[in-house]
Write a sequence for this structure.
DNA sequence: GGCGAAATGGAATTTTCATTCCATTTTGCT
DNA sequence: AGCAAAATGGAATGAAAATTCCATTTCGCC
């Protein structure tokens, strides 16, 4: 309670404090300290009653333990254990501290920059964890068999599709960017057949034109790989194979970093797979 | 409630059930389904009240959702979301092991993906270290004073400029994307005056058309902010202010993540600075 | 366009949980 | 050993949270 020094807000700091003070603590509280360090996720998710039972102490002892560490009650201490679980997923702890320091002295635009960067890093990190290698291989397989790859991605997704069009061009892979210039989107995709393939990219709120184009292609049985953000996406319904990419956002603006990384991967992988069959130009 | 079939005890099963049933669910519950899959951590850690607020629904709707998935109440469903996190933590060491295995037996495309992701993370990290906050503020200042912001960025930089055009549009900032449709690039930029501004993006090898357009604008004294990769870039010579962004590359393909992060920052910062003068639309 | 059923919002209620309090036990010191 | 101070256990309390209930709105069908 009478805690003049700053009380640990992150798990690393709390852990250190527990180790330091444990020796000077009464028996029952030492017991709790040991339990806490050994079963941190129990502390994070359990209730006072359930933890007390597990650790074979009284509920009140848990509260006293938290107070002896400087917190007002058990709930405050538990919050630190929970934050550890949130952060650990992406290995953050240090980052957040750093960001906090930055944020104090920084201008509004600097805060924005770090916020967007953070969102980008988070997005990439989470896709790295959950991207299915087998799905990636299948997607490359579908696309590399296509005579022409049709790229659907308008509005927010247009940077992705236009990047792929650029890179495919450099790599000598025949592709068609559906850019809807002159209102000719439908005409642009009309030539796609079963021998081609579609790569469709769309995120909430799904641009209705992109969806309509993808559906038109699907109706004609053009093989389709989709990149979208939810199993409820209209693209997920119609694609032969789809990737779920959830981008983190900052101030309501979603990152595109993870999607872009995936797009680059597909582009290069398809180009390389093709080169094995028919030799082609290689470029940056 | 009247759940004869086994109700999901692990997250994977629950996830599948949510996807299956969501279509047949009423509007509000579908909304919750989407939120739950997109923010599983929130469900795991939050309280009914806090989650309800985040997802913009009533607390009672969350309980109904849980019941429609076969659970007795929200707490039971939440327990599944929590178990997912527990498991994830327990698997942490395994994960590293798994990653090691991946690296050995990984498919070519997985290696590509991790390579590009790493390049993106590196690029962002290095820009975070060296981006000058004062320069950022000045750039925002220059751009926010413009009547119309002309966006120059072709070929490899086109994803960046097209993203900014999209975002500026959403934010109600007048901008003109020089997309060179119909070979009309010169005409597109011809209207720019001293009261406007140019944001030019170009990297080695500098697309000659981009450079020519920027020079044309500079000759007419249009204020210019540039994003490029070297002090020797032709853009650096003519811009009033320029950012050096060095993107890491993998297998000869440069990331765009850092540039994109900077682009988002400029876009939002300019929009916010403008809103102080004249009220405008706010959107994602 | 009107009727009935389903869905929804929000307040009321119940349950669960953290915290506090106090009687009892243990510990440390003389 | 005997006393005071600290620690402990367990029940009582109050706060917060989940759940239920009901009036109102929305939706689908005739």
């Amino acid at each position: 309670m009478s805690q003049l020094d700053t009380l640990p807000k992150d798990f690393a700091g709390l852990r250190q404090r527990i180790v330091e003070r444990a020796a000077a603590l009464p028996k029952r509280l030492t017991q709790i300290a040991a339990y806490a360090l050994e079963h941190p996720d129990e502390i994070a998710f359990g209730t006072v009653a359930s933890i007390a039972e597990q650790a074979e102490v009284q509920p009140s002892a848990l509260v006293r333990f938290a107070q002896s560490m400087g917190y007002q009650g058990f709930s405050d201490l538990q919050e630190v254990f929970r934050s550890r679980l949130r952060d650990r997923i992406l290995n953050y702890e240090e980052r957040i501290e750093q960001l906090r320091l930055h944020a104090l002295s920084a201008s509004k635009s600097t805060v924005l920059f770090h916020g967007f960067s953070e969102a980008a890093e988070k997005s990439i990190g989470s896709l790295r964890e959950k991207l299915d290698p087998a799905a990636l291989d299948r997607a490359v397989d579908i696309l590399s068999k296509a005579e022409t790859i049709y790229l659907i991605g308008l509005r927010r997704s247009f940077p992705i599709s236009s990047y792929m069009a650029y890179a495919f061009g450099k790599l000598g892979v025949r592709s068609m960017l559906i850019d809807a210039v002159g209102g000719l989107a439908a005409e642009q995709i009309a030539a796609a057949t079963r021998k081609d393939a579609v790569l469709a990219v769309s995120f909430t709120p799904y641009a209705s034109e992109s969806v309509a184009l993808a559906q038109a292609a699907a109706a004609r049985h053009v093989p389709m790989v989709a990149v979208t953000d939810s199993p409820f996406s209209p693209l997920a319904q119609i694609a032969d194979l789809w990737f779920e990419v959830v981008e983190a956002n900052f101030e309501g603006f979603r990152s595109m970093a993870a999607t872009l990384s995936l797009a680059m991967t597909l582009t290069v992988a398809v180009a390389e797979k093709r080169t094995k069959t028919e030799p082609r130009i290689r470029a940056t």
User: Anything to note?
Assistant: Confidence is low (pLDDT under 50) at residues 89-98, 279-284 of chain A. Residues 26-29, 57-61, 64 of chain A lie near DNA strand D (CB under 10 Å from a C1'). The radius of gyration of chain A is 26 Å.
